[in-house]
Amino acid sequence: MDLQKIISSLKKPQKIRTREEKQLAESFDLIDGILYRIHHESADLQNMRTLFVMLKSMRKYLAVRFHDFAGHFGMEKVVQMIRKQFWFPRMTSYIKQHIRQWVVCAYSKVPGGKSQGKLNSISPGSRPFEVIHMYFLFPFVISTSRNKELLVFIDNMTKFLRLRPCLSCLTKNVLKYLDEFTNDFGCPRRIVTDRGSCFSSSLFEDYCKQFGIKHTLNSSQRPQANGQVESINRILIPMISSNVQTESHKYWDNILPEVQRCINWSPCKSTGKPPFEILYGYTPVKLGYFPQYLLPTSNEYVKLTESLRDAQENIRVAQER
């Protein structure tokens, strides 16, 4: 595709454009001398995105920023993130070829899919953080900050994630970060955990009773039954592995804020949207991603009720597959 020809066609008045020039200019617009791709997200012509067209010399930069520096996600998710704001021809093939060059990505990815008879799904709540999942991921190398466990919080509706490194999986550490979580997002109605001693202790049960929280324990016979945990681990474990070099394993807890941001800002397969967008109603602009060229979409500030309703429906559809 010759972008220069498209620009030349757009500069001409529509009345004097040839048929070929009209076809070239279709779905493009020239704003302040900058070329944009007009993308309609649905049959509704008012619901559209204006995407900055990347020149050939700038495409490698996008691939590096959205893959190498953004959690080493798979091809489908990387393309989905880029297409939120940018466009260039044959993007999928280009990103696929870029990711193939990363050997560590090929070795660290965990096969997806539901294991028959093992994974159970929990219906999404009626509001964010009504139902949350908590679990520990370990063992890690003891970090320079003396952390060796990772406490994970997941909202069952928005899929919003919070990561907190811990020295050990004691109940007092769990309650410390649960207090922090409830101060930020409010008290959940239900908490789903495994049967680890930190969650099955009388101290944790007393905490739940005090604040009227229903505590659901997974079966000790089938700890893998929590489908939400299995799903996030397929993303979280490879991301940490891909972003921590062998010689710097003792600094694994330093990258957690970036890992958390990458997951919360990237589209979730079950909801179709980033957890951040579902929760707050807008897509955050990443630093260094040509903000001066990004134009607001026609629905930049989405209605939260619509976004949450869409997330609930998409989760139900995903669970039925």
Would you give an account of this structure?
Helix content is 40%, strand content 15%. The chain has 321 residues and is of the alpha/beta class. The chain has a five-stranded mixed beta sheet with strand order 7-6-5-8-9. Strands 1-2-3-4 form a four-stranded mixed beta sheet. α4 crosses α5. The two termini are 38 Å apart. The model has no long low-confidence stretch (mean pLDDT 81).
Question: What distinguishing features does this structure have?
Answer:
single chain, 321 residues, alpha/beta, 4-stranded mixed β-sheet, 13 helices, 9 strands, 40% helix, 15% strand, elongated, nucleic acid binding, RNaseH_sf, RNA-directed DNA polymerase activity, EC 2.7.7.49
**Largest beta-sheet characterization:** 5 strands, mixed
**N-to-C order of helices and strands:** HHEEEHHEHHEEEHEHHEHHHH
Termini separation comes to 38 Å
Instruction: Output the strand order for the largest sheet.
Output: 7-6-5-8-9
Task: Kindly report the average pLDDT value.
Answer: 81
Number of strands: 9
GO molecular function, one term: RNA-directed DNA polymerase activity
Domain Integrase catalytic: 124-283
Organism: Argiope bruennichi (Wasp spider)
InterPro entries: Integrase_cat-core, Integrase_H2C2, Retrovirus_Pol_polyprotein, RNaseH-like_sf, RNaseH_sf
Summarize the structure.
The chain is α/β, with parallel strands linked by helices and 321 residues long. 40% of the residues lie in helices and 15% in strands.
